[in-house]
Amino acid sequence: MVDDHPLFREGLAAALGLDGEFVVVAQAATGEQALVEAERTGPDLVVMDLGLPGQSGIETTRQLLRARPEVRVLVMTMSEDDDSLLAAMRAGARGYLLKGAVREEILLALRTVGLGGAVFSPDMAGRLAGLFAAHSAAPAREAFPTLTGREREVLDLLARGLGYGQIAQRLFVTDKTVRNHVGSIFAKLQVHDRAAAIARARDAGLGSG
Length: 209
Description:
- The chain has 209 residues and is an alpha/beta fold.
- It has two domains: 6-132, Rossmann fold (3-Layer(aba) Sandwich), CATH 3.40.50.2300; 140-203, Arc Repressor Mutant, subunit A, CATH 1.10.10.10.
- The chain is 56% helix and 8% strand.
- It contains ten helices and four strands, in the order ααβαβαβαβααααα.
- The protein has helices at residues 6-19, 31-41, 57-67, 82-91, 103-114, 122-137, 149-159, 164-171, 175-189, 194-203, and strands at 45-48, 72-77, 95-98, 119-120.
- It has a four-stranded parallel sheet with strand order 1-2-3-4.
- The protein is elongated.
- The relative contact order is 0.09.
């Protein structure tokens, strides 16, 4: 269980302990600690908060599943925004519950995820369906909903073949600002270099203007 609020984390652990179906093998307050505990205990399931101090729950999920792809992650968070939901799914989470969920809903979610299924809070499930439907019918400018308008503009110019200096001149900003935008784009698209970002952009229809 990964959450930086000890009262919530310990209370949920105690509630799960009463069920007898699950055993909490470790608790962590940070993403870095979670990775250490996962390596030490080899959990089957991880309940992951997103708003962690230091390394985010998204990045922790990504690193955890890269090292241990058999682990199943259920996100449990206060974050209701679309970007957090999409980022969690892209990182590999199998479920997304809001912290207002009752104990029975949490147990059902853990059972479902533990058996290889996916589960979402009702509101988040409807929102996710809407996002996928919008994505399938959206024009290229809506292809990457987690990007800001300026980041999408930078990505479009990258996909057209412009260099950082040319983009800076086009947008009337500094090279450093462009590089900062590109770093954020890489993180959000989960790519490691410019070529991969351009390929993703062109697949979505960017760079053709």
